[in-house]
Write a structure and sequence with these properties.
Chain lengths: ~280, ~280
């Protein structure tokens, strides 16, 4: 008996004033060929690391928001059956408390497979259950577009010395958000050589949460991809600039020098051989 | 105002356009036959003087339905070698861009974000069978995830409690061969004299061959095991969007001769969330 569920949308980003009620519709689909029993919950989380991961452990419940389902026949944590292929719309009501302070709150709307009564006691083992979540990023602010301050805090290059032909140079970095509101990374990675711009690449618009950092990625076909600069390079100093922060790497004609030494040695040995 | 001015232009163009009948056409080669001329005029007017919006409006005493678009045909087609998605007859499809804005107009762009947040577990019944002292019992199942555009994912794993009898007797968590694995650190567990309960997760391709994609940061290979934890620990993650990325989860227990007989049970919970 499998668990196979789709939840839409995968993420919701909201800006709300204190004391406002909002509704958000979710669609949950049972793609499996057997009925499943599920329930909906909302849990707070905090960002972990800089890759977009989250943690739920030891995150205190937020008193700034109250959640409920607007569906007439369902409440949060109440089990219901999803038949094979059934799509069910769940309408989440989000009520911001009047005293909610300005700033961000992060939650996940979960569809939990219900475990009750499914444990098989005929042998040792157990029951696997699935849980699928959609994130809710909520900024509480009195204005529509609260200011966010993003900074490039680190730029790390895979190497500071490279050859003209290999290897590629991978550009990593972290964008930090020092404000109380999440924002999306913007800007470009600019690669310049001898004062000339060699190439530019737009940053992928990742969310950088309040008072946290996010590893950057480049934008390609609307998807995040690693920022990699491929050879060949001209010898000299290359400068990588991201939002006014920069780092250098040096390109040396090492392969040409080694090749020249090899050819020179070979010719020299031939000449010596002919003389003797 | 625009509609009126368009109508005025059409009226004027109708007056200034002359069509000829066949007899007149015989007199002058510059003039077109009347039927051909009418067709050309119709095409000209339709192409260059759209005077009404191209949406559809249906109404009755009880309902009003406004359609933004009325296609000739659309959908997904497939043959043995090809997949085709098409939309024929839609108004003004295509990308539109200016400083600060990018609009992708048209139903075909739906397919760019066709991936949805979907999570599947192929088998929920973890059957470790009848346990024998000093002989490892194993079971496996496969988890599969797809994420929408712009989102990576993380899958967290936990149990509700250790493998336990209803009396409360438990099988301890494994500490692996060198006694150094933890819920967040996988280590080799091959020894038949090391007892406990643990698991391994290895990324696989569609043929079931181990690739370690998504799991290499958590489990080095199929010999590396971790004990479960009652709080969710990341066992699989990627930062880029994925479609049907799978991993094989192997559950393993090995008991000592002093372990009480019985069917030990636990629930294993897999939590899948997108990266924010």
């Amino acid at each position: 008996m499998p668990f196979n569920t789709t939840l839409k949308p995968a993420q919701v980003e909201l800006i709300t004033q204190p004391g406002i009620s909002l509704t958000q519709a979710y669609n949950v689909t049972n793609n499996g060929d057997t009925p499943i029993v599920v329930s909906a919950t909302v849990l707070p989380w905090q960002p972990q690391g800089t890759d977009g991961s989250v943690i739920y452990d030891n995150v205190p419940p937020s008193s700034n928001f109250e959640f409920s389902l607007a569906n007439s026949d369902l409440r949060l944590n109440q089990s219901f059956v999803l038949r094979p292929g059934e799509n069910r719309q769940l309408v989440l009501k989000i009520k911001s408390n009047v005293a909610s302070p300005s700033g961000d709150n992060y939650f996940t709307f979960f569809i939990n497979q219900d475990l009750s009564g499914q444990l098989n006691s005929d042998s040792t083992g157990g029951q696997a259950t699935g849980r699928l979540g959609s994130h809710l990023l909520i900024s509480t602010s009195a204005i529509e577009n609260p200011d966010s301050i993003l900074k490039t805090t680190t730029i790390k290059l895979s190497t500071h010395f490279t050859d003209i032909f290999f290897p590629s140079v991978t550009i990593n970095g972290v964008i930090s958000n020092e404000s109380d509101y999440f924002a999306k990374t913007t800007g470009k990675i600019t690669i310049s050589h001898r004062g000339q711009i060699v190439t530019e690449s737009e940053l992928f618009p990742y969310n950088v949460l309040a008072h946290s950092g996010r590893s950057l990625a480049c934008l390609s076909n609307n998807e995040p991809v690693p920022c990699v600069l491929h050879p060949p390079f001209w010898p000299g100093i290359y400068t990588v600039t991201i939002n006014n922060q920069s780092a250098n790497f040096y390109v040396l004609p090492l392969s040409l020098i080694v090749f020249g030494i090899f050819v020179g040695s070979f010719i020299y040995s031939l000449i010596r051989k002919n003389k003797t | 105002m625009k509609k009126n001015s368009n109508k005025h232009v059409i009226a004027r163009s109708l007056h200034t356009t002359t069509c000829s009948d066949r007899s007149i056409g015989k007199q002058s080669h510059a003039r077109l036959p009347r039927s051909l001329c009418s067709l050309a005029m119709t095409i000209f007017i339709v192409l260059f003087f759209p005077i009404v919006a191209n949406a559809q409006h249906f109404s009755s005493a009880s309902y009003i339905i406004d359609w933004g678009n009325f296609n000739i045909t659309s959908g997904k087609k497939a043959s043995t070698n090809y997949f085709l998605t098409d939309t024929v007859g839609q108004n003004a499809p295509g990308p539109y861009q200016s400083a600060g804005f990018k609009v992708k107009s048209g139903f075909q762009y739906i397919y760019e974000t066709f991936n949805q947040l979907t999570f599947a577990i192929d088998n929920l019944d973890i059957n470790l069978g009848t346990l024998t002292a000093g002989v490892a019992s194993t079971a496996t199942n496969i988890i599969t995830i797809s994420t929408p555009s712009g989102h990576g994912y993380q899958i967290l794993t936990q149990y509700n409690h250790p493998l336990a009898l209803t009396s409360g007797t438990t099988i301890p968590d494994t500490s692996c061969d060198a006694g150094d694995c933890t819920p967040t650190l996988a280590k080799v567990w091959n020894s038949s004299s090391i007892y406990g309960f643990g698991y391994n997760v290895i990324g696989i391709n569609s043929s079931g061959v181990a690739t370690n994609i998504g799991t290499s940061g958590y489990f080095g290979d199929s010999t590396a095991f971790r004990p479960f934890s009652s709080s969710g620990k990341i066992t699989m993650s990627e930062t880029a969007p994925v479609k049907n990325h799978s991993a094989r989860v192997s559950y393993k227990t090995n008991i000592s001769s002093t372990q009480s007989a019985g069917n030990y049970q636990a629930a294993i919970i897999f939590t899948a969330v997108p990266n924010y």
